[in-house]
Specification:
The chain has about 350 residues and is an alpha+beta fold. It is built from 12 helices and 7 strands. Strands 3-5-4-6-7 form a 5-stranded mixed β-sheet. The protein has a two-stranded antiparallel ribbon with strand order 1-2. The two termini are about 40 Å apart.
């Protein structure tokens, strides 16, 4: 295995583009003609918008990473000077020496949690990669904790902001505190996507942690590579019509390997839905247009994989850990002068 890629694998989605980075809407003059047909700048802008969003996202990520590196370097430099040591010595004593090593229980748990994806490999075969992965995580965690201490000691601020876009909720299924919540998360997801299932677990943690401060809106984004994703999305919408969306939604993610039509009907029965109405809904596909709209809207704001999350218009791409959500949500709550807990 290449460094246990399964632990870090994420499908990518892109940041949305805010008005400050789009081309002037007034610039709608023609840019080409084909026979008697004119192609306008507005048409061109709309056509390349997802690609421009991706470029803007990459630009912001590069700037943010660079800024983080410069800030960390300066913090270590100032603290090292205060202690009269070299930055490398400070790194060793405060990070490397304090990070610790993974114990047997941690190694076993990570192996057990990912056994299905290891294709029959034994613990002994993958133990070196697991130890390396966990050790790197501990070092990164300790480094972040130490940097947080230093930022409190040496007042640190940043005015660099991510690109934003308004992502419509489109009347889709939601839960949480509703429109009054200071933070809205719009989630584009696929019921057959394994990374989406991991994202679900993190979202559950987010909802439990932040309670009425967060509103969650679900939008479908079934990927063409997943043949059962769209039927599952249609089934979830049929369950929504009977007031059981989130229960059915949870059933689907809990049974990702069983999403055939017979399975979808079994879950409806298990949840006490009207089976005849559900079967007719599944057959008639009345929510096809709504699902198509979700995919279209997602594509327009740069979603090209799942899961994709927009937190008050700020994108988190892929199955990110809870800490990444916490970082963005706490930042948004602080901007609205709302306490995180």
């Amino acid at each position: 295995m290449r460094g246990l890629a399964l632990f870090g694998a994420m499908l990518c989605a892109s940041f949305a583009l805010n008005s400050a980075t789009t081309v002037d809407a007034a610039d709608t003059g023609k840019v080409a003609t084909v026979g008697g047909t004119t192609i306008t700048r507005a048409q061109l802008d709309e056509h390349v918008r997802p690609k421009m969003i991706e470029i803007e996202n990459q630009k912001y990520d590069t700037l943010r990473e660079g800024l983080d590196e410069l800030v960390a370097e300066e913090l270590f430099k100032q603290e090292a000077a205060a202690r009269k040591v070299k930055p490398d010595e400070l790194m060793k004593t405060e990070v490397m020496d304090k990070a610790g090593q993974p114990d047997d229980a941690e190694i076993q748990k990570l192996f057990d949690d990912n056994k299905d994806e290891l294709q029959g490999q034994t613990l002994e075969q993958v133990k070196p990669q697991i130890v390396q992965y966990l050790s790197q995580g501990k070092i990164a965690e300790r480094r972040e904790a130490f940097l947080k201490e230093l930022k409190a000691k040496y007042k640190t601020t940043s005015t660099l902001r991510p690109p934003l876009i308004e992502v419509a909720t489109a009347g889709r299924p939601e839960k949480g505190a509703g429109a009054k919540a200071p933070v809205t998360i719009v989630m584009f997801s696929d019921y057959q996507c394994p990374f989406c299932k991991r994202g679900e677990d993190v979202i559950d943690q987010v909802m439990k942690t932040y309670g009425d401060k967060v509103r969650l809106v679900f939008r479908d984004f079934p990927l063409p590579m997943h043949p059962n994703a769209r039927p599952a999305a249609e089934a979830a919408n049929c369950a929504n019509a009977q007031g059981k969306f989130w229960d059915y939604h949870a059933k689907l993610f809990a049974n990702q390997s069983k999403l055939d039509e017979s399975d979808l009907k079994t879950y409806a029965k298990d949840l006490g839905l009207d089976e005849a109405k559900f079967a007719k809904c599944l057959s008639d596909k009345p929510y096809k247009a709504a699902i198509d709209k979700d995919v279209e809207d997602g594509s327009k704001v740069g979603v090209n994989g799942t899961p994709a999350f927009f937190i008050n218009g700020r994108m988190l791409s892929g199955a990110q850990p809870f800490e990444k959500f916490k970082e963005v949500i706490d930042d948004e709550l602080a901007a609205k002068s709302v306490k995180a807990s």
